Amino acid sequence: MSETIFQLPAIEVPYYFWIIYHLVIAAFIFIDLYAGFRRKHELTLKEASKWVLLWISIGVAFGLVIYFLTNNHELLGLYYAAYVVEYSMSMDNLFVFAVIFSYFAVPMIAQPVILYVGIITAIILRASFIYGGLWLIEQYHWMIFVFGAVLVYCGYKLLRAGEVKVDPGRNPVVRMAKRFLPLADYYDGARFIIREKSSTTTRTLFTPLILTLLAIETTDVIFAFDSVPAVIA
């Protein structure tokens, strides 16, 4: 008789907990977006540090909520392990975002828009991929070895990070967009689409911000895929 390779502690979670959980998460995202879009000045290091500490504190506090509701040390440890892994991997996102912003020379006023869209996409993709990975393991236990192999490969890439050059211009999605989309060669604030008028015609053009967004989104997909083995394994 085969033994289960991977098994989470069995607990019953009432449906209303998930409703409250997702409402709270949505509220936090709204608060962050609202504060960001209302800010009229460049974010200082002091302000950024306060926001980071706030969200880390909330993340740590949620672990205590898990322990309070379940009285299960194993679940608490699993949550904090996943939290630390995901937070560590998010540093890769920041590095790549900075490279992409620099490559496309994105003006400061437009960067928050791209960041917020990228963050929301990252949340959706990582949650979807992780839940999908858990489902695969429940159906096919041998998938844990596949995820383990992917994790080893990700670790190898991390060790070689200093040798790897990030070149958004070689992104196939960006290259395809450059080929098929009517693009302006300048930014217009945080707008993705502009209407360029001449004496005879009016053209609808995409600003380079759309290329930045495509580069960010495709990067989010890659990082979301990496999250599955990192959290599960």
Question: What labels would you give this structure?
Answer:
233 residues; mainly alpha; 2 strands
Q: Briefly, what is this?
A:
With 233 residues, the protein is mostly helical.
Strand order of the largest sheet: 1-2
**What is the residue-averaged pLDDT?**
78
Query: In this structure, how is the largest beta sheet organized?
Result: 2 strands, antiparallel
Which blocks of ≥5 consecutive residues have pLDDT under 50?
1-6
Helix content: 55-70%
How many strands appear in the DSSP assignment?
A: 2
Structural class: mainly alpha
Beta fraction of the residues?
A: under 5%
What would you call the shape?
A: globular
Give, in order, the helices and strands. HHHHHHEEH
Rg measurement, Å = 21 Å
Distance between the first and last residues' Cα: 24 Å
The total of helices stands at: 7
